Amino acid sequence: MTAPAKPTTPFDSTKITFGVKTFAVFTPTGESAVNFVGKLLDDEYKLETVDRKVPDANGVLRADRTAAKSADESFTLVDLEEIDEIIAAVAKTAIVAGSVQLFICDPADAVNTVRWLSDAFSCTMHVKSGTSKFGGGDYAKMSLTFVSNKGSAGPVTWTPKAATT
Q: Which residues of 10-42 are buried (b: 16+ CB within 10 A; e: fewer)?
C-alpha cells in the first residue's frame, strides 16, 4: 500500500487569524450597552453526540452514523482590565442576562473592519471562577464568560472580514 500524495495546495498565510484584541459589546436586559476588551476569546463549545451502531460481518457493533444530541456554546473573554465596569455589570447579581456581540480584531485588517464578527445573541454573563487577579506587579484582571441562550435559534454565527461601520 502506498501513501497518498502530499497535497499540492500551498500554505496561505492570509488565511491565518492573528488576533490582537477581542471586544464584547454586552447589553444587560433593560440597561445600556457595556464595552469590554480582552486579550483572548476562548470558545468553549461542547457537543454531545450519539452513535447508531450496526453489526459488522463478525457481529461486532460498530458506529455507522453519528448525530448531534446536544450542544452548548460559551465564550470567555480573557484578561479584561476594566475592573470597575465588570464590577458594575455584576453588582446586582452574579449572573447577568442580556445579549452580546463579539468582535475579533486582526492587525492586518483595514480600518473599521474586524476579522470575525458574531451575531448579537441572547446570553447570560458571569465572571469566570478563579480568574480574578489583583496585585503581583501587574494590572488587575478578570475574565468574563458569555453563555449562549439562543436555544432553538441555532448556533452563534460568525461573519469573516466584517465591516463595523
A: eeeeeeeeeeeebbbebebeeeeebebbbeebe
Q: What is the CATH number of domain 20-49+62-163?
A: 2.30.110
CA-CA distance, 128 to 18, in Å (whole number)? 24
Mean pLDDT comparison of 43-47, 91-95, 103-107, 146-150, highest-scoring range: 146-150
75-81-82 Cα angle (round to 5): 95
Q: What is the mean pLDDT of the chain?
A: 81
Task: Please state the pTM of the whole predicted model.
Answer: 0.74
Q: How far is 88 from 60, CA to CA, in rounded Å? A: 58
Q: Where are the domains of the chain?
A: 20-49+62-163
3-state SS, residue 92: coil
Contact at 8 Å (CB) between 160 and 116? yes
